[in-house]
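Task: encode each sequence below as C-alpha cells.

Item 1
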Amino acid sequence: MVIPACQAATVCSCCPEVRFPIDAGLKISLDDFFNYGCGQCRTLLQFPLSAIPKGMEPKNATIYLSPIKGNLKAVRAFRNLSQFEGREVTWRTRPKTEKAPFASSYASEDGLALNALPALENCEDFLGVTLETKSPGSLLVREAPYLRLRFAEGQEGGDKHVVSNIFSERRYSFSPSFQLVRYSPVYDASSSATLTFFVKNTGDHPFAFNIQISPDGEQFMDDLQAYTVNPGELMASSPYLFGRFMRVKIVASQPDVPTAADIWIQAQTENYIFKKI
C-alpha cells in the first residue's frame, strides 16, 4: 500500500517567519535555506492514514524520499505531535515533536529510506514527521515522498480484496511576473492512478498552459493538449501521455505582459490489499 505525503514543507531557523518555496525541492541541512551559514533546515512531512482498513496491521512501514542533490548522509526522523499546513507552516509555527527519533538512516544516490513502523504506534488519522540532521552538509529531495506499507502474514493473499483510494493535493501560487515562460514544481506521478491539473488565471492577461511530462525529472516535453486561459478563468486538464514526472508550463500571450496563476495538482492513488476470508 502506497500513501503519498499530503503535506510537505521546509522550515529554516534563521528565517523563523518565512514560508519557503518547495519548487526546487525539500531541504535538510545544518545550513540555512540560502546557504548563508546562519541556521538549519528541516523538512516536514504528513501522511494520511484514514485509508488503512480497520483490522489490518502493518508488518513493514517505510518512508521513501528521492534525492536531487547533496552531500548529506545521516538523517534522523521525529514524529510530530500535531498536524501542519504545508503552505503556511514556518519555523516558529512548526509542530512539536517527540524527544527521541523513531528512525535514522543514510542517504545515497538511490534515495533515502526510513523505517516508520515504530512511529505508527497509536497513530490514527495521520503520521507527521520532521526530518533533521546533526551532520555537516545538505540534502535536497524531491517534493513527492511516500509511505509504503506491507501487512502482516495472514492478512494478504486469498481471493477477497479491499480497494482504497487515497487523495493527495499540491497547491502553488504564481505572483505577477513578466517572465515569458514559467514552470510549476516537478510532480512525481509514479504512484498516481488519477491525476488532474487545475490552473486559474489570477492576472489581467490571457496565457497558454500545457502539462509537461518527463522520464527523469530533468528533460521535459509538452503533452498533446494546450489551452488558453483568460483572466479569472479556471481550466482543468489531465495528461494524455504518461511520464513519471510532470509539471505545468505557463506561457505569456506577449513578452511584455505579466502572468499570475493558482495551480492545483490533485491525485488519487489506488491500493489493492488481498485479504484471506
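Item 2
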Amino acid sequence: MRLILIMTLLAFGLNLKAQEFTQSFPTQFIGNWYNPKTNEWNYGFFEKFAIINGKPTFYKDIKETKKGVKITFQEKEKVKPIELVLANNQLKI
C-alpha cells in the first residue's frame, strides 16, 4: 500500500515549494545593531531574516506601527515578537 502511494505521488509529480517571505522590510532598520555602552553586537536585520541571539530567524509578519515596526517570527516559541523604534539614529526594542 505504501509503495503504491509513493509511486502514485511520483507519477503525478510532487510539486513542493518552501514558503517564501514576500513582505518588504523597512530599509531604515536593515543592518547590524550594537549596544553603544558595551559595544556588543545585539541584532542584525536583513530583507528576509534576522539574527537574534547569534541565530538566524525568519520573519512571519511585519506590521508598521505609529512608532516603528512590529515583527513576528516563524519560530515564535523561541523568539518573541518585537517592536522596533528608531530614535536619534538608535534602535530601541
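Check on item 2: The chain has one domain: 17-92. Residues 2-12 form the longest helix (11 residues).
End of task.
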